[in-house]
Amino acid sequence: MSANARISALTPPDVLAKKGGEPLVCLTAYTTPLARIVDRHCDIVLVGDSVGMVLHGLRSTVGVSLDMMIMHGQAVRRGVERALLVVDMPFGSYEESPEQAFRNASRIMAETGCGAVKLEGGETMEKTIRFLTRRGIPVMAHIGLTPQAVNTFGGYKVQGRGDDAFHILRDAETVAEAGAFSVVLEKVTATLADRITTSIPIPTIGIGASRTCDGQILVVDDMLGMFDTFRPKFVKRFAELGEASDAAIAAYAREVRSREFPSDVHIFTDGNKGKTE
Ligand code: KIV
Fold first, then answer.
1. Is 28 in the pocket of ligand 1 (CB under 6 A)?
2. Range(s) of the domain holding residue 184
């Protein structure tokens, strides 16, 4: 069996079956080494289109291409053995029609070996989610703050306050009814997230939502303290790897300038070969 044909240990039906159970642990990953670590601890590894901002320096996810998602999806696939691998459909790759979405989602699945795709949108994506899920493509939906629509929202604002709550609840019911196996709730009020979680039969995965969601997700570079461009309230930093990297690189620069590095243990002599050559 080729690497791309490998079935993840955890499948979309397994995730669906975890509704109301122990919280689903989810993180993004974009590279093989980090995917290996994330896979050891998480149920779902998402190759989010946040990769555009986190690793490529884009100002939003709008500029992320299908080829970028496929390349990072392949890298992450090599590091994931037990979690469910989900790959984001980038802006412009699915909104036009269900047929366009199928063409691009099937390419993502075939070329990365992921177990599901994620797309943004609620009621407007009903037909597309139905079309994909009836044709063998499991879909994770994403509602509330949908970052690909940042230009329409006018910023990364909290969603679901006032009358808006009703529309987001409808979005949640619609994506569940259309066949999505789970739904990400991003930056919605906790009251709304609680209500959605108790009203729909599929797992809700919160990011800036509520602790009652069926699972939680964060951008891995955010929670490791590696990404500083935005620092939303919902990000808890579990490490400060950005600061640690800065200190390490500063020490390297100092030692190179003072000729302290490389020292004898890092260079090769004419004599007998050492064990660590
Ligand atoms: O792109 C992304 O990383 C995401 C998650 C944060 C939900 O969509």
1. yes
2. 3-240
